């Protein structure tokens, strides 16, 4: 709920909608769509975030245990930097399986600048037929996440839900590596001594810094992912990841790949700080029984 408005701004900036800067994007959304415009597409991520995060953090923890058991013969043996890297990269791959459809639906809904279909297409005999009547999905035509999913499945099949998944792999594999490793390093630096556990303030700070680092460094791949997922079938501009990168660079320059970096940095801190703090406190709570 806290991060979604900034995520909407980030998506609009990255997808190339003619906004001059972050402030212009924020004001444009507010003027044209009011406050509700910042919360478009939130219901589906909100409904799936618990499952997604439990899988991501659960897989990361279990991957560490398996690696430690394989390398050291003890699943409780502390992981080294190389072990953490391997566990983080595997977590990034797994996250795409669940996260790609959620992100796709979220972005398609976020990109809607109007609530009703407003186009006409030529019918038989030159008559104008509303697009809704012929079942053609256009930008602005999704009534909600369920309608969005069914429209994508009907038009493109299951593979349609995974459009941009390749770019998401490029974002999440290094992204989660630069998420969990900085968190671990900062926690080690902020703990009083090697045998003690970090206090909640240290966990919150370490998680926030790790989130900002991860999201800022992942911005170029995030731009490509956002553009491909916002690229609706009837208005398709990009043939694939390479074409998206080349086309974006030729038309808008190298700076296009850093659109939304400041928003990602701001948004990444409170989201990740809260997530890591809740995760660690939950583990402590359940381990006390």
Automatic annotation (TrEMBL):
<keyword id="KW-1133">Transmembrane helix</keyword>
<keyword id="KW-0677">Repeat</keyword>
<feature type="repeat" description="Solcar">
    <location>
        <begin position="1"/>
        <end position="66"/>
    </location>
</feature>
<dbReference type="InterPro" id="IPR023395">
    <property type="entry name" value="MCP_dom_sf"/>
</dbReference>
<dbReference type="InterPro" id="IPR018108">
    <property type="entry name" value="MCP_transmembrane"/>
</dbReference>
<feature type="transmembrane region" description="Helical">
    <location>
        <begin position="81"/>
        <end position="102"/>
    </location>
</feature>
<dbReference type="Pfam" id="PF00153">
    <property type="entry name" value="Mito_carr"/>
</dbReference>
<dbReference type="GO" id="GO:0022857">
    <property type="term" value="F:transmembrane transporter activity"/>
</dbReference>
<keyword id="KW-0496">Mitochondrion</keyword>
<keyword id="KW-0812">Transmembrane</keyword>
<comment type="similarity">
    <text>Belongs to the mitochondrial carrier (TC 2.A.29) family.</text>
</comment>
<keyword id="KW-0813">Transport</keyword>
<feature type="repeat" description="Solcar">
    <location>
        <begin position="79"/>
        <end position="189"/>
    </location>
</feature>
<dbReference type="GO" id="GO:0005743">
    <property type="term" value="C:mitochondrial inner membrane"/>
</dbReference>
<feature type="transmembrane region" description="Helical">
    <location>
        <begin position="42"/>
        <end position="60"/>
    </location>
</feature>
<keyword id="KW-0472">Membrane</keyword>
<dbReference type="InterPro" id="IPR050567">
    <property type="entry name" value="Mitochondrial_Carrier"/>
</dbReference>
<keyword id="KW-0999">Mitochondrion inner membrane</keyword>
<feature type="repeat" description="Solcar">
    <location>
        <begin position="198"/>
        <end position="285"/>
    </location>
</feature>
<protein>
    <recommendedName>
        <fullName>Solute carrier family 25 member 48</fullName>
    </recommendedName>
</protein>
């Amino acid at each position: 709920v806290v991060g979604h408005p900034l995520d909407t701004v980030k998506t609009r900036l990255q997808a190339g909608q003619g906004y001059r800067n972050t402030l212009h994007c924020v004001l444009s959304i507010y003027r044209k769509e009011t406050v509700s415009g910042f919360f478009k597409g939130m219901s589906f991520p909100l409904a799936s975030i618990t499952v997604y995060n439990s899988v991501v953090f659960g897989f990361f923890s279990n991957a560490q245990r398996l690696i430690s058991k394989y390398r050291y013969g003890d699943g409780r043996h502390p992981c080294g930097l190389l072990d953490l890297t391997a566990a983080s990269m595997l977590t990034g791959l797994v996250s795409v399986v669940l996260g790609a459809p959620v992100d796709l639906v979220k972005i398609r809904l976020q990109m809607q600048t109007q609530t009703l279909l407003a186009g006409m297409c030529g019918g038989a005999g030159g008559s104008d037929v509303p697009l809704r009547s012929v079942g053609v999905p256009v930008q602005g035509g999704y009534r909600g996440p369920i309608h969005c999913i069914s429209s994508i499945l009907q038009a493109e099949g299951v593979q349609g839900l995974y459009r941009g998944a390749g770019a998401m792999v490029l974002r999440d594999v290094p992204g989660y590596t630069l998420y969990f490793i900085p968190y671990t390093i900062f926690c080690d630096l902020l703990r009083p001594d090697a045998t003690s556990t970090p206090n909640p303030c240290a966990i919150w700070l370490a998680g926030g810094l790790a989130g900002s680092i991860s999201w800022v460094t992942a911005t170029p791949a995030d731009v490509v992912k956002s553009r491909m997922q916002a690229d609706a079938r009837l208005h398709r501009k990009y043939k694939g990841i390479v074409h998206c990168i080349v086309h974006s660079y030729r038309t808008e320059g190298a700076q296009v790949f850093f659109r939304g970096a400041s928003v990602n940095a701001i948004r990444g801190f409170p989201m990740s700080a809260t997530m890591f703090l809740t995760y660690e406190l939950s583990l402590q709570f359940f381990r006390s029984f």
